[in-house]
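pasting for ref
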Amino acid sequence: MRLSLIIGAIALLLAAPVRAQVVLSVSSWLGPSHPLSRTQSRWCDEVAKATARRVTCRSMPRPVSDPTATFDAVRDGLADVSYSVHGYTPGRFQFTQMVELPFGGDSAEAMSVAYQRVFQRHLAALGEHQGLKVLAVFVHGPGMVFNTRLPIRQLSDMQDLKFRVGGGIVSEIGKALGLNVTVRPATETYDLLASGRFDGVFLPAETIDSFRLEKLVRHRTAVPGGLYNTSFALVMNEATWRRIAPADQAAIDAMSGEITARAFGRSFDAADRRALAFMQANGVQVSQATRAFLEVLHARTVPVEQRWVRDAKARGLANADAVLREYRAEVARLK
């Protein structure tokens, strides 16, 4: 009897499906020292720890694609995991533009955690990330205006300048202000300014250090709460996600989401602080937006927010205005 039980147990073990170790190919279109790359690498370390190394990462030697095609590259299985900017594919992502609206906040950590919470409650089920497992959504620090030519103290100072922007709502903000803006990836910023083809950029503080722009940019205009922001996501190929055992999926979910959003935001905040000191040391002049200038910016950008609400409702987010208020209330609680 015992022998038959042993034989039966062995047969069941042999018949049970055995999941091989999953090695995730991970792509980054920024250098290893950039806050995005470093935080993605730390996420990989935490995944290996949480799954007892049943799921690990392998960094790809070069980016799987340019930044604008990264979401598609992950969806199509050219890489298993990467991050990118929603605004780099105009017209594709509507709901995520909510966090890109002006004056969102001064802390990337607070905004990222608020974004992840609201995304999970209201946006995740709306189907904008087909073929992708969204591991976390997040934002960088407050968007500023940098230029090579003159201090910007009023809107008219910007009229004759040509600006690089990152796409999404920031492009709409530029148009609402009557500016000459062109959508280009952040990785092209140095060449665009060095060549003289562009006079300025809309970027967060950390990029001046990350992209070595301190000798090109001479003026910074700071707007409380940021003139804009940028929506990011860390994503995994959906078919790859299904290859991971359910217990390991649960472990990865537990250390992704809000925990990972906070990590990205905190990394951006730390990089912004370093960059502000770096700019000061390199003589970049600072102009704080005056009350009168802020009133003009608010008045000109209100239609951008109204348009987002209308478009989000038309696309399926029936309570878009309430969701936006909820996001802002979350940021206020967290800051």
